[in-house]
Write a structure and sequence with these properties.
By secondary structure, the protein is of the alpha+beta class. About 25% of the residues lie in helices and about 25% in strands. It has a six-stranded mixed β-sheet with strand order 1-4-2-3-6-5. Strand 2 and strand 3 (about 30-40) form a beta hairpin. The longest helix is centred in the middle third of the chain and has 15 residues, at about 80-95. The two termini are about 25 Å apart.
Length: about 160
């Protein structure tokens, strides 16, 4: 299993700034499925502690839907301690099933127009893994993973080519 951790190339405006994804070797009949991990919910008090106007450069009373989505993208991210614990958990629990674990800081300023992972719809191709529902889950925070099966060819198709 490969572990790729990209360090920040700038000062981060807050601690909650790290994204993590994993590449599952085989999942639901697909090969090398990329799963974007995120916090599905958080304490409102934590969200209120940040100076969003300073982070986005806009007066707080003028935050619209795009800024609100950017706030959610940040709140879904992990802090350094959570990222480290999550990577260790994945390494110890799923080493044989994973091809890679990747982590990088969010790009600041957050690009406009992003849709938070927790708001992505689910259907036959788009779905969620709820890691905290798996027996013997040991992390102190919930983690969900969003995937898109349509982005990965079926395993049988790959083997025939």
């Amino acid at each position: 299993m490969e572990i790729n951790i990209v360090p920040p190339n700038q000062d981060l405006p807050l601690e909650r700034a790290y994204v993590v994804n994993m590449l599952i070797r085989s999942f639901k009949g697909r090969k090398d499925v990329e799963v974007h991990l995120h916090r599905p919910y958080w304490d409102d008090a934590e969200e209120k502690q940040y100076d969003w106007a300073a982070i986005f450069g806009n007066p707080i009373e003028k935050l619209g839907m795009e800024e609100r989505n950017s706030i959610k993208v940040i709140m879904e991210a992990f802090n350094l301690e959570e990222r480290t614990a999550l990577i260790e958990y994945l390494k110890n629990r799923y080493a044989e099933k994973l091809k890679a674990i990747n982590s990088a800081p969010l790009p600041f300023p957050i690009p406009q127009g992003l849709v938070p992972l927790s708001e992505m719809p689910e259907d036959e191709n788009l779905g969620r893994i709820r890691l905290e529902k798996v027996p013997n889950y040991t992390l102190s925070f919930p983690v969900h993973g969003f995937y898109d099966l349509s982005a990965h060819p079926p395993i049988l198709q790959n083997e025939q080519e």
